[in-house]
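Forum: Protein Structure Q&A
Topic: Joint prediction for protein chains with partners

I've read a bunch of threads here and the consensus seems to be that you should model interacting components together rather than docking separate models afterwards. I'd like to see that in practice. Below is the full input, 894 residues plus whatever partners are listed. Could one of the regulars post the assembled result?
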Amino acid sequence: MKFVIIGGDAAGMSAASRTKRNRPEFEVIVLEQSQDVSYSACGMPYNIADPERSMEDLVVRRAEVFIEKNKINLLTGHRVTRIDRKAGKVMGVTRDNQDFTMAYDALLIATGARPHVPDVSGIDLPGVMPLKSLDHGKKIKAFIDENKVQKAVIAGMGYIGLEMCEALRARGISVDMIKPGPVFLPWMTPELSRVVADEVTANGVNLYCGEAITAIESVGDGGLMVVGEQRKLLTDLVISASGVTPCSELAVEAGLKTGIAGAVAVDAMMRTSDDRIYAAGDCADAIHVVTGDKCWIPLALRANRAGWAVADNVCGKEIRLQGVVGTAVFKVFNMQVARTGLCLQEAREAGFDPAEVVIKSRSKAHSHPGSAMIHVSMVGDKKTGRLLGAQMVGTDGVAHRINAPAVALHAGMGVADFIQCDLGYAPPFGPVWDPVLTVANQLIKKL
Amino acid sequence: MKFVIIGGDAAGMSAASRTKRNRPEFEVIVLEQSQDVSYSACGMPYNIADPERSMEDLVVRRAEVFIEKNKINLLTGHRVTRIDRKAGKVMGVTRDNQDFTMAYDALLIATGARPHVPDVSGIDLPGVMPLKSLDHGKKIKAFIDENKVQKAVIAGMGYIGLEMCEALRARGISVDMIKPGPVFLPWMTPELSRVVADEVTANGVNLYCGEAITAIESVGDGGLMVVGEQRKLLTDLVISASGVTPCSELAVEAGLKTGIAGAVAVDAMMRTSDDRIYAAGDCADAIHVVTGDKCWIPLALRANRAGWAVADNVCGKEIRLQGVVGTAVFKVFNMQVARTGLCLQEAREAGFDPAEVVIKSRSKAHSHPGSAMIHVSMVGDKKTGRLLGAQMVGTDGVAHRINAPAVALHAGMGVADFIQCDLGYAPPFGPVWDPVLTVANQLIKKL
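Posted by a regular:
Agreed with the consensus. Here's the joint model:
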């Protein structure tokens, strides 16, 4: 068995390592266009925040280790340009401009996602930078140091943008954030979104929502001018963080089926429309457990899990993934932000008849020191009583709390079942009725 | 409807308040032998730890509020001595030695639990004190202040004993802990139990397991001598914390069915063997969701939830509780300790064919600052693949993490389903594979 993997990031390397663990006799070849494999992409903002840390800290495992210890044929600097399904081959070009061809018995497309590049003049100026790969991270950090950056504009207000906003403020850099959409966090219930926005602005960041960038201009001596619809922002650095796009061109050109958001369509076994070709990670779609529909929610855990599933399936195990519930957490300054499942609007669009409750609760017991306010939203379906989603923001005890409703979503629990859950209680960690139970106790009255 | 409630603690007051909210026209009478209702019993150790705080901080709601605002006929200083089921009456005596009789249409026994009193000479000496009621807490705190306590012995190593141990150390008091059982935390898997024991001893506390106390002696000038089987401990204060016993005497004398540990037997609607009499809180039993058998796990959330269920049922709603999974968390010094479901030994005793895995994992992402080690155990059933329980200890990110497997236990999930759960990930809060997923990924290989 010759198993070829295009892309040596989370999904690709998970698949490669697990295949060799399962079946050491299989030949596993990874073709990675960059020099970097197995690094903590999500850790980059935290690393950039700390001038004392090297970006190399983020490397979990070096390419040599995969080659020598795991016996993976890991070829960095190898960019695949075409998949020939009939011949069972991939073709490409190396960093040194050498053409190569590689035959496969099974193929995994793990090409990930790339930053969306807005169609704005000046987006390619020096000092305008996206953050996705380790290389991007290194460039941003070096740019900050070398140019003594004092001002930055972040275009976009997604997870990456907000994490970078905190990182830049930690470096003493003043930050403006701007995006065309009118709502700060459109997937979040308005009351909770406001709490997060307040935390960001309280940390000295300007938020300009509903304002597209029309141009970025060079203004002598390395300065940049971000021209928005209503203002001009003078800056040293622009972080372009307006979302990502699945890298599915190879799949499209090979005639494989793509679907939502242009991601490669896969079944529960991570197979594309060609039985010999799998796709996993940020380039592939998934089933949303709550809606039953296809979705594209590129996150790290799914990439790792899908990589493992592909490895097992290449080895003949027939592993089927159930899908995702869209659980996501991030931190911005002192605020922890978490979501799982559907928000009210998503629930409506998916054809449910949803009700939502938003509450405030203490993060710790009555009168316990260090308690903070948690804002919790929960959405349920009036027709079936089913739990559909939950969201939470607060400075204490938010991140891990979201996982209880996340598991309930996987189990297809009704809100009436969820309120019966026997969750932990001790004064340093929460009130007797955990905030996720309190919100469910309120929600059940509206279903 | 005249609804009489014996006991004005968590279950009793929850039932009383909710009944009046549901049906303001119902007459609700609470007979409470002490003066205190609605206080945070679990908060007492943390209050005792802080000499600046008043014990009154722990009172969530005063009796007057229940009487005036909620229109509950709350009678403190009323001790019930007998239930006459035929006549539908309870009899008792007031603090002022007045006999009283109260007729009921529906009755709730919410008498709670009392500290187990070991059969040891000297257990009634001044300076030997249990901690269960607010009155106990007040006495301990006053005793510490008035006698300038420097040394304490805690008899028992349960949650209360360990929380008190931390509280006393915070007051600069040296602490010895002693108990007859040979194992520090017998319900915890040995590797995790050792981590907790190490934390306790690292904080200057001596642990003497496997050593019964044979006597407590007075040694002049207020001093006490705890005589163990192998040593004598000179001390100023003894906290008697060797567990609690359900207060089910009234029920037993009335001929109601009791069961496990002597607790009042109730059905899913919290009805005793007499249709007009309910029981809830620490005096009543429950179904364990994992085993399907009766259990007695007296914890605050269950008491509150059962109180609500009784209220709804008295009001004709027919609420059935599914049962408990035994989720419990506590903190001792910097260590967070959490469990849910069955440990290996309990699983064997319940007739499962269990396998267990114990792992260590980082609490935060690779290379993220502030990451600490979490020790996690998970137990599954080899016959059915079902998840049976989980335990966790660590200084960071333990308490709320236990709720994900707790919900999975309620859903009856298999380990193979649990490993598919889409949990949150961000570097400040955990690794990509959350520790509860990593342990499940290992456990599935043994099932």
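The domain at 128-240 of chain B is CATH 3.50.50.60 (FAD/NAD(P)-binding domain).
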